[in-house]
């Protein structure tokens, strides 16, 4: 362990490092030492990265599932709280007047066109 370890301020020999930080050196010896890095450092790093990526993927899947569930709940609550649209007066007249219903049936658009034309004729004839 005669390698030179470069720190921010000075070059330090392994002996000095071992005297100053015996617990760190013991840990390095326990793990093993290879080319300036503890043996298994790269392996541990890649395993750590894989574990981190796996955790992030699981977290994203959980978030997507929770968000989808939240969106569905919101849509259901909005749908439940939204009242049914009330039919217009023209729809009611068309539904309940047998004469108009016989003439237009369920074709409400043609009935609306008829009512608009009727209104336009009345305005022309009688003014407002």
Q: Which secondary structure elements does this structure contain, and how are they paired or packed?
A:
Layout lengths: L3 E3 L4 E3 H7 L1 H10 L1 E2 L2 E2 L2 H41 L7 H8 L1 H7 L3 H19 L2
Helix pairs in contact: 1-2, 4-5
Describe the structure.
- The chain is mainly alpha-helical.
- Among the domains are: 4-39, no CATH class; 89-126, no CATH class.
- 72% of the residues lie in helices and 8% in strands.
- The protein has six helices and four strands.
- The strands form two sheets. The chain has a two-stranded antiparallel ribbon with strand order 1-2. Strands 3-4 form a two-stranded antiparallel ribbon.
Short account of what is shown:
The chain is mainly alpha-helical and 128 residues long. It is built from six helices and four strands; from the N terminus they run ββααββαααα.
Query: What order do the strands of the largest sheet run in, or round the barrel if closed?
Result: 1-2
Share of residues in strands:
5-15%
Largest sheet: 2 strands, antiparallel
The secondary-structure element order is EEHHEEHHHH
Q: Pairing-aware structural class of the strands and helices?
A: mainly alpha
Distance between the termini: 106 Å
* CA-based shape: rod-shaped
Low-confidence stretches: none
If you average the pLDDT, what whole number results? 68
- Based on DSSP secondary structure assignment, what is the total number of beta strands? 4
Number of helices: 6
- Which range best describes the helical content: under 10%, 10-25%, 25-40%, 40-55%, 55-70% or over 70%? over 70%
Instruction: Report the C-alpha radius of gyration, rounded.
Output: 41 Å
């Amino acid at each position: 362990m005669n390698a030179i370890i470069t720190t921010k301020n000075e070059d330090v020999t392994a002996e000095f490092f071992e005297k100053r930080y015996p617990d760190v050196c013991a840990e390095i010896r326990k793990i093993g030492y290879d080319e300036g890095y503890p043996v298994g450092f790269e392996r541990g790093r890649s395993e750590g990265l894989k574990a981190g990526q796996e955790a992030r993927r699981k977290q994203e899947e959980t978030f997507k599932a929770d968000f989808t569930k939240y969106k569905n709940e919101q849509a259901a609550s909005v749908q439940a709280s939204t009242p049914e649209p009330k039919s217009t007066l023209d729809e009611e007249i068309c539904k309940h007047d047998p004469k108009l219903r016989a003439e237009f049936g369920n074709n409400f658009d043609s009935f609306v066109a008829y009512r608009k034309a009727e209104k336009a004729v009345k305005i022309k004839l009688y003014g407002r």
